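Tokens help. Consider this.
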Amino acid sequence: MKRSFAFAMALLAMTGTAAASDLTPGNGHSIHLGRFDGAVYYTVEKDGYRVVATLASGADEQPVRFVSTLGPGQRLMISVPQEIGQPSLDFEIMRDGEVLLVNEPGATPIDSIATSAILEE
């Protein structure tokens, strides 16, 4: 399991300076949700975009992986609760046709990262 976390951290290192336009299928995007850090990436599959997110709260902690295949119009949300009375930290991934939108916690729609991929048959 520590290998999974190391892989996620390697993805973070490789993608930390990438511009939004550089995000393509198979390349990672870093996630920061309070005390959780990790990476998300996607691949184009025959039945949709396979999105994989891996998060952990530290190098010695067990990572958690979320996997979902998104079709057009579908979305995935990873939410971390905060203290009572505080809003949750939400990381949302939405598929709009051939475009994958990633909304960071507290981001407005203009802060979204758009990336596209075309499935070649």
In short: Residues 2-15 form the longest helix (14 residues).
